[in-house]
Amino acid sequence: MTAPAAERGRTTVADRAVRRIAERAATEALAPGAVEVGGGSAAVRGRRARVNVTVTLPYPAKLDEAGESVRSHVAERTARLTGLTVPSARIRVRGLSRHALSGGQQLAPPVAATEAAGPRAHRPWAQRRLPVAVLALLGAAVCGLLLYDVVSVHAAGHAPARWRAEVMEWLSTHGPDSGTAVGVLAAAGVFLLGVWLFVLAVTPGRRGVLPMRPPLAGVRAVLDRRAVAALLRDAVTDVPGIGEVRVRVGRRTARVRAGLEFGGLEGARRAAEAAAEAATAELGLAGALRLRVRLKTEPGWRAPTGSDPRLDSGSKPAAMERSTTDEPTP
Length: 330
Description:
By secondary structure, the chain is α/β, with parallel strands linked by helices. It has helices at 15-27, 63-82, 129-156, 162-173, 181-202, 225-237, 265-281, 309-312, 318-325, and strands spanning 36-45, 48-58, 85-97, 209-211, 222-224, 242-249, 253-260, 290-297. The termini are far apart.
């Protein structure tokens, strides 16, 4: 029986179309022009679609709340426009921009983001596509050559390939019990390769991101280290007297090095530490960062009028040191 014309055929949605819709939806999540999209990907499997979008959020904004707002809007908007189910929408915050929200608009936090207690955050696991692809290609090439030679010998009656005969002969005379340097080095190389593969399998990787407090159950949020460094750099630069600022963010420690152009050294150091601590507290990270702030004076720095630069830097003046060391013992 022939089906009616209206029921014939099939409608498919391309991955590229879903990706473009998800990227456009990310730009609509907050104020117009506030979110910048740096790329994305989409995979459609039947009636389900998974999307990934890389964005740059406006500064200042609470990253966990803003990221969850973008994620929920992307999933909802993509599902509504494509007719597909979007069970997974991943948002990667690449950095922060100075584009402020227009009209003093504030982000509406999601319901679960304001709860004090939430699910435990874990570091994201890297997919490690490049090592897996390289090993898979090498393994496929070796297995293909070996299979071709074996089939040609047993099915077509050809002589074994010269390279296989030489390899088998070499292995028979250079086994583990031969004690030659070549065999030992080959065994050590295979052992190190196995250790490397084991480390890749049991470690999360992705050291360039820091886990954030999950805004919702089943949602993982991460923050790029470069975004953390930019936020700390902007916060410390706003301290009066601070010039050049360099920030290096690790997995557990953030090191801030700044130069003082004018003002008191100790006061500026305390202000820089307070600004860095306040900025770190607003990141919403799962674990606290240990801050190490180092402040040094620039070549053109001069001590404030009426103060001793040696006292301001925490050291005793020379006259005071002489009085404590040269005084005769009674």
